[in-house]
Design a protein that fits this description.
about 475 residues
Length: about 475
């Protein structure tokens, strides 16, 4: 039987506020356990939560950036459940009336096509604490520093049909929240994580299959692997005559498998009711317009501008706007190079990103800054060096051996563009290869590449390629 995959994502983005969503406690990462949980976060008797206005503005920013509706009135609710790391016995969240609803994002897929993923809602809520198991023998510790940290939960429609589509959407949201400045996107620290709802159904069937929820995955690679494993697991269960149980499952990256965590709760299991300590959230048109006027250039706008202004392909533009830091670096390289955008794109995507990936570094940690790369590109463009020699200089820049011009001078890498010198070298090469010359002149045109290689070898790769090709053709023509 042919199966169709149906995937929806619930993304948790930790908002980049200075304090928690209902208290003034710090949300700084890495503090000693239980040093950043105040009486409000713990829900002690007599305390009242006070909504963080900055968190509300960040939610509005996301709504505007994701083509969503902003609710003029939304309500906070208590979501009741009992975990050791949930000190109040309930989580303050939003249920029936979220602050953001009915939006969409257009996602660029691997083949260059675009797919629209609809957003059901994005609601504000507080995070729970964290259970610690690693440092205790037979016991668990509870760290409540994270309790009360502001989250924006972004819930998609079940519009994705493969793990790759889900990852593409996740990356699109990741890029957007970082451009908007509402989340640092740090997946290792748990600032950006997702739950994946996965089901399958026979191809052509309209009714959704029973779904499982893959909980708290904090890596693009793990999201893809977890979904693919779950798809195969569900297919195997159904094709062997079994039934899918609606449940929450955890992904184990070490064994690349999902395993049951608990049966999946429904909304009524949480006994939602409006939080009596919080008034309804009212958002004015003036506040929405204020936030709208402060929006930066968004990823899709920047992508379109890069394609038009710099004449880049959709693929190259998508890579170069993948983060604000990458886009800024690229535009600075273009300026430093004397305005050679296509050359700058090629060198960033192939050479720089390749070197960074090999070294396991982020762009912000690159040993080569935008001014150095721009200068290297300008020296290619003005024929001071060839593209091949530039790779040698790039390696020297990476190893901090000096400035571009210093390296060219010190190593004697300046490209030979003198016609007389090139002709003399060509004559030497022709004299040394009489049989190949005769074969070429008898019609074996493919030997031309051999002669170019021999000439470059004799010169140490310093000949101007365009001049070499032109003069070589004339000489070989006899």
């Amino acid at each position: 039987m042919e199966w169709e995959v149906v995937i929806g994502l619930e993304i948790h983005a930790q908002l980049a506020t200075q304090s928690k969503i209902f208290s003034g406690a710090s949300i700084q990462f890495g503090a000693e356990p239980n040093t950043q949980a105040c009486a409000i976060d713990l829900g002690l008797p007599g305390v009242l939560p006070v909504l963080n206005e900055n968190a509300v503005e960040m939610a509005i920013r996301f709504g505007l950036g994701s083509n969503s509706e902003i609710a003029k009135k939304s309500v906070f609710a208590r979501k009741n459940y009992f975990y050791p790391d949930l000190p109040k016995g309930y989580q303050i969240s939003q249920y029936e009336l979220p602050v953001v609803y009915k939006g969409h994002l257009d996602v660029t897929l691997d083949d260059g096509s675009t797919k629209r993923i609809n957003i059901t809602r994005a609601h504000l809520e507080e995070d729970a604490g964290k259970s610690l198991h690693e440092d205790f023998h037979g016991l668990s510790g509870i760290d409540l520093n994270r309790a009360g940290t502001p989250l924006l939960e972004i819930v998609s429609e079940p519009d994705m049909r493969s793990a790759k589509e889900a990852v593409a959407y996740l990356k699109t949201v990741h890029t957007l929240v970082r451009y908007l400045g509402i989340c640092d996107g740090n997946m290792q620290e748990g600032s950006f994580r997702c739950d994946a709802n996965v089901s399958i159904r026979p191809k052509g069937e309209s009714k959704l299959g029973t779904r499982t929820e893959l909980k708290n995955i904090n890596s693009f690679r793990y999201v893809e692997r977890a979904i693919n494993f779950e798809i195969e697991r569900q297919i195997n269960v159904l094709e062997s005559g079994g039934r899918i149980t609606q449940e929450t499952r955890l992904y184990d990256p070490n064994n690349n498998e999902t395993r049951p965590m608990r049966s999946k709760e429904e909304a009524n299991d949480y006994r939602y009711f409006p939080d009596p300590d919080l008034l309804p959230l009212l958002i004015s048109d003036q506040l929405i317009e204020k936030v709208r006027n402060e929006l930066p250039e968004l990823p899709q706008q920047k992508r379109q501008r890069f394609m038009e202004q710099y004449e880049l392909s959709a693929y190259d533009a998508s890579i170069l706007i993948s983060s604000k830091e990458t886009a800024d670096y690229y535009e600075n390289v273009v300026k430093s190079s004397g305005n050679h955008p296509k050359l700058a794109a090629n060198w960033m995507i192939s050479e720089l990103f390749g070197a960074l990936n090999k070294a396991g570094l982020e762009l912000t940690d690159s040993p080569i800054n935008h001014a150095q790369l721009g200068k290297l590109i300008s020296r290619i463009a003005d024929d001071t060096i060839s593209g091949k020699i530039a790779k040698t200089i790039f390696e020297a820049l990476w190893n901090k051996e000096g400035d571009v011009d210093e390296i060219i001078e010190k190593r004697g890498l300046k490209q030979v563009s003198d016609t007389g010198a090139i002709e003399k070298l060509i004559d030497e090469m022709i004299a040394a290869n009489p049989e190949q010359v005769a074969d070429y002149r008898s019609g074996k045109d493919k030997l031309f590449g051999y002669f170019v290689g021999q000439a470059m070898k004799l010169s140490g790769g310093k000949l101007n390629p365009a001049q070499l090709n032109e003069l070589l053709k004339k000489k070989l023509a006899g």
